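User: I'm writing a tutorial on reading structure tokens. Could you give me a worked example: one chain, its sequence, then its tokens, then a sentence or two explaining what the tokens reveal?
Assistant: Sure. Here is the example chain.
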Amino acid sequence: MIYKKHKLGNGIRVIVVPVPSLESATVTVWAGVGSRFEEPKIAGISHFLEHMVFKGSSKRPSAKEIAEAVDAIGGEFNAGTSKEWTNFYIKSRAGNLDTAFDVLSDMVLKPLLKEEDINRERGVIIEEIGMYEDTPMYRIGDIFEQVIFKGNSLGRDIIGSKETVSAIKKSDFEGYRNIYYYPENLVITVAGGVKEKEVVKLVQKYFGELSKGKAKPGFDKFKLAQVGPQVRLHPQKKEQAHFILGFLTAHMDHEDRFVEAVLAAILGGGMSSRLFTEVREKRGLAYSVRTSTDHARDIGYIGTYAGVAPKKVEEAIAVVLDQHYKIASGELRVENNELRKAKEYLKGHLALSLEDTKDINKFFGEEELLLGKVETPEEVYQGVDKVSLGDVQRVAKKYFVPDRLNLAVIGPYDSQEKFEKLVK
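And here are its predicted structure tokens:
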């Protein structure tokens, strides 16, 4: 996949990925800030600000006017917040690229942040917090990261809490934007039926006058200090128990990142994976079981999720843990055919995801924003292909140890003591 990278005079980075066969294009604006950068008293402000840019801008003073502008070109728009970035996008017919840039730049660079809109949206976000609390399949990820990243800002919920969201004021948004929304901390990605020169010209037109920033505050770097397994129970009376069992691994640019991905695919990457077979097919313990990796700039993890009957949770956790430890010890060897299948699974899923220009933007934008470099899909395929059986065994042995083990559980339990005994 061919891409072109540019840098404006003010420091904004631009990545263009032409896909000539497409009639559509996606424009995404990335800001290198997320929840891990926030002060505790304004936790959730990155996500709150993501909401606020849709409520009115300099040219379009209301949410309705912004929505009408996007509807008028048959487009779609949305945004997202992570622990390390915030992004905003518009996807439209390629012939409407100028309008997409006009609307998106106005939203991101000149939000009105009216008091009445802030107060109204505050209530929306508090309801969103309640929705996640009532949806354990989604909430379990937050609980797990609270325990695995304990003591670090990575452990905070992206959405914040009802208390912090209730206290955020207009001046907090303005101060936060002044600190983090500056050209050197922004990346713009455009993918689809576009021409490189046209895109660069539009970025210059709509973002070129943004003034350069200064050196800005960093984030609380993760320090590995765990001793022994960590467990967190989130008691909740539900018909099903949910858990994530995972191990701390390496950062997103580590040389073993491809080995981790292959190892996760072997464990729980599909319906023929080891854990799907052991937990669902052989024992009927869960409907859903899957293993995945997650990485930040300074740390990462491999985690397995399952939703099980409350009476079966201990058995399911024991099976999952047993598979990890036995791969690490070599008792359950990974065979050549398993390794080949895992590699093709990863490459196939990446190829399928890159059929959507939003995902193309994410693939190129996230690495450029966080690491200052770009890795093509072809380079990823090569990295995956190089993984050997010895690599899988080495990485499993390195990371699948008690001092990196973490467990989070949501379910109708009064005490986490039995879970602590189980992992020890």
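What the tokens reveal: The radius of gyration is 23 Å. The chain has a mean pLDDT of 97.
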